[in-house]
């Protein structure tokens, strides 16, 4: 999910994190056997819940599906992101779910564990069509309970002129490059060579790429492992940018883009939504002044993968038609059209062969990065763990907490929360 949604989504998730445990459903999310979908065109009414811009645009977009399936009618209900988690949880408890709903990737485990989500039918949906990191967000206890709809990942945005002056005209390739580039930019008069998020909501998404790239495996469905040498080293590396004055801790809200445009910030980590923001803020010609690099290499060059999935509910009134609509949205050509309409990046790998995406130098970098991107495990408690993670990151960046102590604090809090398995 885009960063602008994170605060509202996290707050909503935490506020109702205990609701689902009392939903009265059979325990689910464990090796469910997927049922086949009947052949033929979709028929009947298909109710769909979708959030944000997707909720606003999907109803009109679905007219093409209805043209191909004239006996089917798609009814889309737009749902605000800050109300979505509660609305889905309440619908599950009351067994009054829609046929299909968007599910935030970090919610997948929580809702699958209630037993409310239908297992993904492999006869209709092919795992290998999707980016592996995206598909993994649908897996709970070995079974898939949805389909990746759109994705996003993170890369390094950098000013080409400032990077070239620092000796890195193609951007940083390794951890050592990133540090050296930021230090040289600082020496050349740039206020922040590499701006990083100093804690607060969603900062775990900036830290975890460094942890994964260093070989850290922090969580599985039944084990939490934050207190490791790999995580400690990644935390120390992240902290070094603040200790060395290469990243600030008090950037005002809304200052990132104008400070990057003016050259006060030389580089930062973010997702594809920042392409348009920078082009708009920088004005004519500024797109020639910045570029995007993949995450820098340590043991790997892994980034975070996010986005949103589509799930069909076991209580769906029109289950087969719901899956057929999801399958239609997963067609490569439809994914490209959806990108053109909404700018959501395709989760289907072959959609990136289209020149609309492969021909864009910024998007091509993100497309390549998606081949090496991970998400946290789909466990019911991840939102709670992430919130405590964010608090410890803020102490790390702003109070110079020892990285080993930070790793232990994250581990202790995560262990107290548990995996929900």
TrEMBL record:
Q: Does the keyword Signal apply?
A: yes
Cleaved signal peptide residues: 1-21
Q: Which gene encodes it?
A: lacE
> Pfam families, per this entry?
SBP_bac_1
Is Nucleotidyltransferase included in the keywords of this UniProt record? no
Alphabetical list of CDD domains matching this protein = PBP2_MalE (cd14747)
Instruction: Please state which protein family the record places this protein in.
Output: Belongs to the bacterial solute-binding protein 1 family.
Which of UniProt's keywords are assigned here? Signal, Transport
Q: Where are the transmembrane segments?
A: none
Question: Which taxonomic lineage is given here?
Answer: Bacteria, Bacillati, Actinomycetota, Actinomycetes, Micromonosporales
Q: Tell me the superkingdom of the source.
A: Bacteria
Q: What is this protein called?
A: Sugar ABC transporter substrate-binding protein
